[in-house]
Each structure stands twice: as C-alpha cells, then as structure tokens.
Amino acid sequence: MAIRNELFKGTLQTIILNLLEENGRMYGYEITQKVKTITQGDLLLKEGALYPALHKLEAEGLLETMVEVVDNRVRKYYLLSEEGKTEVVSKLQEAREFINNLQLLLNLKPQLK
Amino acid sequence: MAIRNELFKGTLQTIILNLLEENGRMYGYEITQKVKTITQGDLLLKEGALYPALHKLEAEGLLETMVEVVDNRVRKYYLLSEEGKTEVVSKLQEAREFINNLQLLLNLKPQLK
DNA sequence: TTTATATACCTAAGAAAATTATGTATATAA
DNA sequence: TTATATACATAATTTTCTTAGGTATATAAA
Lengths: 113, 113
Description:
Two copies of one chain form a homodimer. By secondary structure, chain A is α+β, with helices and mostly antiparallel strands. In chain A, about 55% of the residues lie in helices and about 15% in strands. The longest helix of chain A is centred in the C-terminal third of the chain and has 24 residues, at about 80-105. The model of chain A has no long low-confidence stretch (mean pLDDT about 90). The interface of A and B includes residues 9, 105, 106 and 110 of A. Chain A binds a DNA duplex through helix 2, helix 3 and strand 3. Chains A, B: It comes from Pedobacter duraquae.
C-alpha cells in the first residue's frame, strides 16, 4: 500500500468506505490522489491494492458503480449502497477501538481523553 | 490475530518490540496474556501469529533469547538486542505517524493536539 | 481417576491482503 | 517523440495472519 508502511494492512476497506461517505461518489484514481493529499504523501495507495479492494466491496454489495466518460477517458464512479452506509458506521467504530487498543499497547495514549 | 480484527495486520512486530522495551524480558505465553489484559480481551494474540513473529524478529537480530525451566516447564524468554533497542524507537515513530494518518483519513482526529 | 483448564512451546496448510510488475489507452507538456 | 498525468485492470508473488493440529506438565473439578 505504501512506501514503508506495512502498518496500513487491513485498514484499506475502512479508508475507502469513509472517503466515499465523506465525498459522495469517487472514482479510483481520485481516491489515490485524495489519500496522497490527506496524508501529505506519506501514504501512497497502490492501484494493485485499490482496484481489487473496490471490486471486492462491490461484490459484497457495499458499493455501487456508474461509468462516465470525461475527456474521452472512462471513469468508474463508486458510491456507498444502503448496505454500505450501514457498514461504514460499524467499520468506523471498529477503527476507533483498534486505534485505542493500539495506543494502549504502544504507550501512545493521546494527551486528552 | 484476533476475534474480528483484521485491522491489526502489520502491527504485531511493533507491539512485541514495545512490550519488551516496557517489561524487559518476556516469554511467549506471557506476551499473549499481557496483550489480552491491556486490551481487556479485545485482542487475542494467537500463538500461530506470535511464535513465527518472535522467530522472525530473532532471526533479524532484533531479539535475543534465554531458556529457563520453571515448575518443570520450559520458558523461552525474549529480550531486545542492542539493534532491537534502536529499532523499537523508529518503529514507534512510524506507528505514531500511522495512527495520525489513519485518524486523518477516517476523520477521527482526537479532541486535543 | 479421568477430564478440563491453564501453562508453555511449536509448525503446517490455507486464506487474505498487500506489493510488484505488467498491460491498455488518452491527453498534455517538454 | 518522449515523459508525465490521467484512468482502468489483472497476474504472480510475498507477507502475514487464521485455523488446526501436535507435544508436554500442573492443577482443579467431576
């Protein structure tokens, strides 16, 4: 997924679902750029990781797609299905617990609360 | 690694190294119990994940071992090598950046700082 | 006494999720 | 015409985990 960050293994689905919840529909390339911008280049989301993940989420019924042509190039937009909207909520809750547990295990508790 | 937590993939090495830095020498079973206690049972570190990880860290020269017999049972203690003590510092720094980036990507920034 | 649970180590087969390396194609800047 | 950016995709491999099994001792319960 990234330059020197095997830590992100397992978090990709949650990241994708949350970005789609925040931004409405997005296409694959747009997601890679968004991740790069948000993390200031720390995290480079590889296509070999992203596309299979998107296809899997779609196959599971969490995402829906619509294809459009812009500037003679095909874009495949992804958006949350109703099921996906439900799923992102529980995935985010799990992520909160994950971060909390990881901070406990690594003695990295934040300064407040 | 856990009940329903594929999120922890990739974080195991860092967790092990940090626990050994905090507690000095530890043996495998002790590590599994420590993780269980700290996370209040949220994270169950499986032996099939732990032992190969310990062996790998030892093979990489980050850990040293000493075997002792207690109550007729063999314990294999692990402790940080000099190289391991250096490595744990950078691994923790990476973990801080990882958590920060993940919180940014998931809109989970902590209340303070 | 035998069974279950806790302690303590280990590995092998398989699954899941990533990296690396490709491939196709268009648009634009050098 | 070459490189870079945009935009999709997959195949082979690697890494890392789960699941499932194995060995062995100590102790509590049935």
